[in-house]
């Protein structure tokens, strides 16, 4: 049995394609087209080349079409669609990134329910820590690592606990963020195929420290060491 959405799409489909064939609006068919979110969006984008006000209340019921209507047709906020968008972490993130280009407060609870999109939101929209999403981020070693590397850029215990669940991301964190030992992740690393790479990293780090102290014995301090290691990684 067809859903109401499918019925509306089936009625609107030939009407949209007829307008597309004619390359113009067909006013007498717009009331039926307006009952379908998909064809309202397509009609606005492809036939009108701008707002289709009669279809906006239907479009606004769907996060997917609300986002694309805002992006491709209005090219600005679609206020009527924000209620639906705020419930969908995927399109709430896209809407915040591409349309608002700013925080989307009403959607943050939804975004925070997903670790992947919490990381994306923190990295691309907030450009800072997203505390609400950290409980979900920490469940994923991959996004814990990326969040530490791209967003936090400093050590944080709860996030490190998430990274330490996985050998590969523990090694990547040690290499790319700490440039040295990551004690919390060592148990899982040493029981994995990343053991040799990790041991090599530790040996290289020791060599770096030795070389540094030999080169500048009288001026050795933490700031100098940090500057040296950063330069070394850029070579």
Structure description:
- The chain has helices at 4-22, 30-33, 37-48, 56-59, 63-74, 82-85, 89-100, 108-111, 115-126, 134-137, 141-152, 157-163, 167-178, 186-190, 195-215, 222-234.
- With 235 residues, it is mainly α.
- It has a domain at 1-59.
- Helix 9 runs parallel beside helix 11 and helix 11 (141-152) packs parallel to helix 13 (167-178).
- The longest helix has 21 residues, at 195-215.
Gyration radius, rounded: 26 Å
Estimated structural class: mainly alpha
Characterize the largest beta sheet: strand count, sense, and whether it forms a barrel: none
Please give the count of helices.
Answer: 16
Strand content: under 5%
Helix and strand run = HHHHHHHHHHHHHHHH
How far apart the termini lie comes to 64 Å
Features:
235 residues; mainly alpha; 16 helices; 67% helix; elongated
Topology:
Elements: H1 4-22, H2 30-33, H3 37-48, H4 56-59, H5 63-74, H6 82-85, H7 89-100, H8 108-111, H9 115-126, H10 134-137, H11 141-152, H12 157-163, H13 167-178, H14 186-190, H15 195-215, H16 222-234
């Amino acid at each position: 049995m067809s859903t109401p959405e499918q019925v509306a799409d089936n009625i609107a489909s030939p009407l949209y394609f007829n307008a597309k064939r004619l390359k113009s609006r067909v006013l007498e068919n717009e009331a039926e087209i307006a009952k379908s979110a998909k064809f309202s969006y397509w009609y606005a984008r492809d036939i009108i080349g701008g707002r289709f006000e009669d279809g906006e209340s239907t479009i606004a019921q769907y996060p997917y079409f609300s986002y694309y209507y805002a992006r491709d047709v209005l090219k600005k906020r679609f206020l009527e669609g924000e209620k639906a968008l705020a419930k969908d972490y995927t399109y709430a993130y896209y809407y915040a990134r591409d349309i608002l280009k700013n925080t989307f407060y009403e959607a943050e609870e939804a975004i925070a329910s997903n670790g992947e999109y919490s990381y994306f939101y923190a990295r691309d929209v907030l450009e800072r820590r997203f505390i609400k999403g950290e409980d979900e981020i920490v469940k994923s070693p991959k996004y814990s690592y990326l969040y530490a590397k791209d967003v936090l850029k400093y050590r944080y215990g709860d996030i490190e606990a998430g990274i330490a669940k996985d050998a590969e991301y523990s090694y990547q964190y040690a290499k790319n963020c700490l440039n040295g030992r990551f004690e919390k992740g060592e148990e899982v690393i040493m029981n994995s195929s990343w053991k040799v790479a990790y041991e090599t990293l530790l040996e290289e780090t020791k060599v770096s420290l030795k070389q540094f102290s030999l080169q500048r014995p009288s001026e050795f301090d933490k700031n100098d060491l940090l500057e040296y290691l950063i330069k070394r990684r850029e070579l």
